[in-house]
Give the backbone structure.
Amino acid sequence: MQTQPKASHFIDGAYVEDDSGTPIDVIYPATGEKIATVYAATPAIVDRALDAARRAQGAWAAMSGTERGRILRRAADIMRDRNHDLSVLETYDTGKPYQETSVADATSGADALEYFGGMAATLTGEHIQLGEDWVYTRREPLGVCVGIGAWNYPTQIACWKGAPALACGNAVVFKPSETTPLSALKVAEILHEAGLPAGLYNVVQGMGEVGAALVTDARVDKVSLTGSVPTGRKVYAAAAEGMKHVTMELGGKSPMIVFEDANIENAVSGAILGNFYSSGQVCSNGTRVFVHKDIKEQFLNRLAARLDAAVIGDPMDPTTNFGPMVSEHQMKIALDYIAKGEAEGARLAYGGKAIDRPGFYMQPCVFADVTDDMVIAREEIFGPVMAVLDFEDETEVLARANATEFGLAAGVFTNNLTRAHRIAAGFEAGTCYINTYNDAPVEAPFGGVKASGVGRENSKAAIEHYSQLKSVYVRMGDLEAPF
Ligand code: NAD
């Protein structure tokens, strides 16, 4: 497969190169080999992208929602037709197994394009009667929206931000993560092939400085970031300076509570999905697994048996279900946390070692006997490291689950109906799961509370974050004034 893109950037409907920017090597995580090089955007490239977006946006907003939606739905069809190639590229970019990318990346991006494409024609204001007079509201786009992506779901993030923004009549400038710059270019290509007018979806490459240059530019009306909490704090502050709208999809250290009456196999499945999918590099992962002490050993035994069945290997092999980490850097972060966990006295119950083969492979890791104060129970690791903590009492475990600055997701496994809903209501988290974990369909709002974020992606809720209401007051009779 051709992994070197035609050029680094996609601006005003075409590929654009400027090799005077800092080179960014793209590494295939399964081998450590270089598979492409792109160049970070220079100030001139950033300027060109924002200029193109600004120029194109007005005419796009003036089109009917039906027309805009038709283009997005056509792009969704093209993405589905090319799912195989897009999934292979995503696997090269991220190292995630093809078994995952073929069902969770371009397909999820296509879902967003289809969903918001369908919704574009339904976006309206409302009529408010005030006696004989009345007010109507117009739902208007924000203008130019900047999207900044993380490296774990590059295609999905490019579409989750692009689809609602375009549906509402905005133009987009998207900066992928420097670790995974390839697939957003394909999203741009497909959107334009589907009929998107030039300038409405631009992709510029680069590190944090390029993101910062976009966030502080006066031509930008909204910033949507998917990234870590420290980056979120910087980007939110910079956006506030310019009074820009924001969506912040940030990190987490989410809890999963397994009660003694839970179906153990389902709870183990939830813990696997919430800790080891994408080699643990998922923001909403339930990495603090609170297991009732009566079932703890049974849970750990079943978990170990199920982990023994993981197929670790070449991510292109369709039977592989646990691939490498995205980068050597990310693997080192995870291994350093494992060393800290051992030093703090947690019991290493499973795996946790680097695997001696090319690429950035490590074993899935489970710590037992973890206590709330340990670093591995407090900080986001963003790797395949599960912390199992004991509990006995419902009130106590809910308080411990919530005792964190994060609030992205939370899960509960129990067969007690009322307890399940009581716990879901008590969780301080934006996305909660009962007897499941890590589902993220486009139909449901997704996002965090507390330090995990601001705003929601997906669902009807996303429309509120990519449009604004204008109120128009209409007087039907004469107007009285005091003098
Ligand atoms: P990161 O914060 O290092 O980088 C995210 C993006 O921000 C990158 O594109 C980076 O270049 C850019 N950036 C960095 N500094 C910037 C600045 N000062 N101004 C503007 N842009 C800047 O995160 P990462 O390592 O790429 O991704 C992992 C993190 O993302 C984890 O914390 C994870 O939980 C989070 N994440 C959250 C979600 C979600 O939906 N909540 C989804 C995926 C990942």
Remarks:
- The chain has a mean pLDDT of 98.
